[in-house]
Write a structure and sequence with these properties.
The chain is mostly helical. It has a single domain, classed as NCX, central ion-binding region (A middle domain of Talin 1, Up-down Bundle). It has a two-stranded antiparallel ribbon with strand order 1-2. Helix 2 crosses helix 8, helix 6 packs antiparallel against helix 7 and helix 6 runs parallel beside helix 10. The chain is globular, with a radius of gyration of 21 Å. One of its GO terms (cellular component) is plasma membrane. It is found in: Membrane. GO terms for molecular function: potassium:proton antiporter activity; sodium:proton antiporter activity. It holds the Pfam family Na_Ca_ex.
């Protein structure tokens, strides 16, 4: 009777193989979700959902459509490569976010006037603390020290800080209109400024200084039994990329339609639970950014923290730089006043996030310590959103 050979492979590799097998089983899911979601949208359009089983079905279809949309955006992004790939992901996520905000604002009551502000600020905090913190934590745990290019990350953070201040902080201090709002001229200026800064950032990221945003070359360490191609999968074929592009468009339309269908029930549920209205904005941002968070964490596990930061900061910039101008333009037809200015607690959290992010990025290297700090700030944001 032979001796049993000890498996020296780490538990992380065995878990990865198991997840790989499961992923093959569910590989067809992103192809099935769009037509199923279209059927659900057609069957429920114009109907009152209430708070029963029908609402659960529509909510599940909405979540699945969002995840499928980001999956197909990832396929297209993988085809075009970095840094254009992260730009495609950011734009796709922003389209979903804007669609959800507009549908909820047009279908909801007067409490939705601050929904755009709550969603954009939630996306800022989720990305800059939740996503970045989680990526630095898992990257630090697995690789001890992670490295990234300071030139690109600091440029993204400077742009993000300027856009966030113009869009979310200044409205609370202007005097042309009462409350934390902008006048029409001020709103137009803020929208144009945000769009200009985002456009220049995209030009720098993709053309002028593209090398600032490419992953830092690292020496890969392969465990026993691992293959070099585990780190870099082959890009999809042009046919697969075109198919994903078409399904992405379908998913975006379905997400907007399902959001309009489910919005009255969301408002009723929040009111019945007695939760603050800001919870709706947090929920939208969490839903939209969940698949992109998974992509960023996967990149951090492969010691490609630059890709993770590109995804995170690019999403936050797109969220503010594209959402604010779009909502400002749509506010001409949206009911009520557009409230953009943050409260005192939110301003403190935003300022703390910017300061800590600067200290994290400045050395060009990070460990799990920085990740833990960002995650604690993210926990404080979630706690204060529920119990202001």
């Amino acid at each position: 009777m032979g001796r049993r050979r000890w498996d020296w492979r780490g538990p992380g590799q065995r878990l990865g193989r198991l997840l790989g097998r499961l992923r093959l089983r569910w590989l067809h899911a992103p192809l099935l979700v769009p037509p199923v979601a279209v059927v659900v949208l057609g069957a429920t359009w114009g109907r009152h959902l209430g708070l029963g089983a029908l609402l659960v079905v529509v909510a599940l279809a909405l979540v699945a459509a969002v995840i499928a949309a980001v999956h197909h955006a990832e396929v297209v992004a993988h085809r075009v490569g970095e840094p254009f790939g992260t730009l495609i992901l950011a734009v796709a996520v922003t389209v979903i976010e804007v669609g959800l905000i507009v549908m909820l604002m047009t279908s909801g009551g007067p409490g939705t006037s601050s929904l755009a502000r709550d969603t954009v600020f939630s996306a800022f905090m989720i990305v800059c603390n939740g996503v970045i913190g989680l990526c630095l934590l898992v990257g630090g745990l697995r690789h001890r020290v992670v490295e990234f290019r300071v030139e690109g990350v600091t440029g993204a953070l400077a742009t993000l800080s300027a856009v966030a201040t113009l869009a979310l902080v200044l409205p609370s201090f202007t005097t042309s209109t009462p409350g934390p709002t902008y006048s029409t001229a001020q709103l137009a200026f803020a929208g144009i400024a945000a769009l200009t800064l985002y456009g220049v950032f995209v030009f720098v990221q993709t053309i002028r200084h593209r090398d600032y945003f490419l992953p830092v070359p690292t020496e890969p360490t392969y465990r026993a039994g691992a293959r070099p191609d585990d780190e870099h999968a082959a890009p999809p074929s042009p046919r697969s990329a075109l198919l994903s592009l078409g399904l992405l468009a379908v998913c975006l339309v379905v997400v907007v339609g399902l959001a309009k269908t489910v919005s009255p029930s969301i408002e009723s549920g929040v009111a019945a639970a007695g939760a603050p209205q800001t919870v709706v904005g947090v929920a939208i941002a969490l839903l939209v950014l969940l698949p992109e968070t998974v992509a960023a964490v996967r990149a951090a596990l492969r010691n490609r923290i630059q890709t993770s930061l590109n995804l995170a900061l690019g999403s936050a910039l797109a969220s503010i730089g594209l959402t604010i101008p779009t909502i400002a333009f749509a506010s001409v037809w949206l009911p009520g006043t557009l409230v953009l200015g943050l409260g005192a607690t939110q301003m403190v959290l935003l300022a703390l996030t910017v300061v800590v992010s600067v200290l994290t990025i400045a050395p060009g290297r990070a460990t799990l310590m920085q990740g833990t700090v960002h995650l604690v700030i993210f926990g404080a944001f979630l706690f204060l959103a529920v119990t202001p």
